[in-house]
Amino acid sequence: MVYLKISKRKGHRYAAIVKGVKENGKVKHIQIKHLGRYDKLIEKLASSIPVISLSDITIERALDFGDVIALAKIWDKLNLTQIINKFAVKEKGISCGDILEIWSINRALDPKSTNKIQTWYRKTILPYIKSIPPEKIYSELLCSSLDKFDNEVIFNIHKEINKILAREFNVDLQSVLYDITSTYFEGQKCIFAKFGYSRDKRKDKKQIIIGIVVSLDKGVPIYHFVDEGNVNDVTTKLNVDEKLKALGINNALMIHDRGMTSKENIRISDKLNYDYITALDSDTKQSNYWIERLRGDKTEYFVVDKHRKKCRQEDGSEKEIIYEVKIKEAITCEHKRIKKYVLLFDEALAKKKSETREKRLSDAKTQLEAIKDKVDRKTFRKKLTIINQIKKAISGCSKYFEIKTEEKEDNVESFTWNFKNEVQKKAEENDGYYVLICSDQTRSKLEIFSAFKYKCEIEAVIKELKQAINLHPIGHWKGIRPEGKVFICILAYLLRKVMKIILNENGIHDSVSSVLDVLSEVKEVEISAENGSVQKLTRLTTEKENLFKIFQIKSEI
To answer: Which of 146, 158, 184, 256 might form a disulfide with 260, Cβ 3.0–4.6 angstroms?
Structure first.
């Protein structure tokens, strides 16, 4: 029994917290804490001065709590551990579902290499809520778990997740956005890695291709695949069309950017009877044909959007300029399907393209004239050096220039260049124009424009995967491990996207990153003194308390 004991020494009374224990049938007092003079103790209690000094308190631990527990709650709401364990069976040890939960939450918050995840994990609340000691989350375990996730397993997991997305979050899966990206490798051993068209501008690195399909509604990832780095767009497009049907998405409207458009891809979609909205790649014969045809049509343009921009005048005042986005359409039959070809003209885009081109061409002319001057004065003659400088000068605008050199052995004897004014004139005529194709003739011009405008959603997915979630470069190369690593990145993005859905449903439209930053300020702290310890959360503001309610997190431990 613990109680307060008052004793008298040298005319003063002293207080102490003591504990009574029995020894040989007698009660003996063991002092736990000396509280000093009794009269001073009463003064402290009356004035609310702490009886225990701050120097007697120890902070045993301070763990990441708010952001980690919010994502763990979303993981549970999606039933991901059970779904993953259903298809990726591990006979003993920590389950694949638990491993991927830890790894995906790390990817969504603070991406670490496999060697550093254990250190991160140790500093979070996860070891306590999952009852998995940090020493059991080591690099070899993480890497070996990737061996369970081949294309079939990942496909089956996507299929189950999609059911929950539709049921719990009312995600419409019938309109989808599709794009492909690439990620490069450090090293030469990955069986998937091949040299191909690099979207990362790393021609010196082998790469893999990643195809991603997200819902137009809420932008949630519903399917992805990994393929060899040299596979062409036609092959990937056929794969996606077939997989969507296998996922039960039979009447999807697929929206993809002009980079995915080719005659063969359009033919495949028509053959499979998929509806799509896409744009023709600019500066092709087909695109130029439809721009000329629709521009010459007497049908009036229809304004679908406006850009407002403030410009400063010469007198220092500001003037608001309104740039219109307008479209017109034509209906035609192609591959036995009735389609709409829509011409879109964006005035702001036309102005921006013209200004950018003018600046680039001006710089190129200046550089070419400087090279010519040096060659003419015979101070600059090395063939290889001159050729490289000419290529650099006209990079991205070579079609506007005619280059002629006279060479002798390793030297350039003369150099001339001419500017192709007719090419510039043709480009200026087409500035701001691009052509959309829609296979569903029942959709209005405005619907077609609005749907295609949302293609930025898939671009946002790729940007977040590569920046916030740190998709590349992929370090895993054995067997099918690259597929597993990409899958973890997709799961991390899924957690962030579902968090965005939940926030929007509760009237919060801040970015996921800013909300996670706020939640990251909440730590779980263990405080100890001589008489015991207690676990507490750091102080919750009104904003944090509201977020805790939204994600169903207890504010008390």
So the answer is: 256
Supply the DSSP symbol for 521: T
In a domain, 30, yes or no: yes
Domain that holds residue 412: 296-441
Q: How far is 276 from 254, CA to CA, in rounded Å? A: 4
Output phi, psi for 416, to 5 deg.
-135, 155
Determine contact, residues 249/176, Cβ cutoff 8 Å.
yes
| Residues paired with residue 175 on neighbouring β-strands, in sequence order | 253
Sign of the four-CA dihedral 218, 224, 230, 231: negative
Closest CA to 435 of 261, 252, 308, 272: 261
Is residue 355 in some structural domain? yes
Among 314, 301, 275, residue whose Cα is nearest residue 437:
275
Task: Tally helices (H) and strands (E) across the chain.
Answer: 19, 17
**In the chain, % of residues over pLDDT 70:** 84
DSSP result, 36-51? EEHHHHHHHHHTT--S
Quote the distance between the C-alpha of residue 129 and its chain's center.
27
Adjacent-strand bridge partners of 529: 532
Here the tokens at position 133 are 């000691």
Residue 18 in domain: yes
Instruction: List residues bridging with 12 in a β-sheet.
Output: 9
Q: Is 263 within a domain?
A: no
The count of domains in the chain is 2
Which tokens is 461 given?
């997915």
Reported as a single tens digit per residue, the pLDDT across 485-506 is 889 989 999 999 999 999 999 9
Q: Report whether 73 contacts 461 (CB < 8 A).
A: no
Cis peptide bond prior to 133, omega within 30° of 0: no
Q: What is the pLDDT of residues 323-342, one digit of tens each?
A: 888 989 888 888 788 889 99
Angle, CA of 7, 13 and 14, to the nearest 5°: 65
Cα(557)–Cα(554) distance, rounded to whole angstroms? 7
Candidates 233, 225, 77, 242; CA nearest to 155 is 225
